[in-house]
Amino acid sequence: MDWLQVIILALIQGVTEFLPISSSAHLVLVPELTDWPDQGLAFDVALHVGSLAAVLTYFRIELWRMTISWLQSWRGRVDEEARLAWWVILATIPVGLAGLAFKDVIETDLRTVTVLAVSLIGFGLLLGYADWRRPGQRSEYQLRWKDVMWIGLSQALALIPGTSRSGITMTAALLLGMSREGAARFSFLLSIPVIILAGGLEIRELIFSSVIVDWPALFVGTLLSGISAYLCIHYFLVFIRRIGMQPFVIYRVIFGIWLLWFFA
Q1: What pLDDT, on a 0 to 100 scale, did the predictor assign at position 90?
Q2: Secondary structure string (H, E, C) spanning 219-246
Q3: pTM here?
Q4: What DSSP state is assigned to residue 40?
Q5: pLDDT tier at 238, thresholds 50, 70, 90
Q6: Closest to 140 in 3D by CA, of 169, 181, 171, 172
Q7: Do residues 209 and 41 lie in contact, with contact meaning Cβ atoms separated by under 8 Å?
Q8: Phi/psi of residue 175, each to 5°?
């Protein structure tokens, strides 16, 4: 890879990983619009490491409290921090099982421009409806186990390319009466085990492959992905508090129509 490819891919991954606009839909454009070679599995792992580092750093205080409380919950002491930690684990189970069951189908049959575009538009409009209905006031600490299961099941839909993991989980949370910020924060916390699982599968494949690793490119990709993802999380939370989700809905619909027009 040349350095322009490294920079562009890292920024795309960092910015789109946590926005409700689908990182897969944006990354699929790269080979369509350029003659760049495939970035390879090692670089994909590096980008995931950067995104993971960003969300861990941003929520470091909350995660520390959740971890301590979660460990204490094994002794019977369950407070709101421990409960939130258990909710993150519970909501990850559906997407983990679905990923293992349908991995081959998703990678071979669903990675088409048509699927990407239809998912962008359809799930984008659903997000718009959920945000248009007056958002509730509940935070991530006020979730019930039934709410968590619905959000977890919705997260499994993110395996469909173009859906957006953050977008579909925020949609489900808003429909359940959560505030915009609460929905976004819970979605970001849910990204941690999902990125770890996805990155773990990629690392496993990488270990059993014989690829030449470009360490400088991996370092720069990880750094840029992490910085851009961190900034994205921070400013997204500020943005939706003031304006809401509708700009992202409009972007998704326009982007989906553009994909259908030029590539389908």
Answers
A1: 97
A2: HHHHHHHHHHHHHHHHHHHHHHHHCCCH
A3: 0.93
A4: -
A5: very high
A6: 181
A7: yes
A8: -65, -25
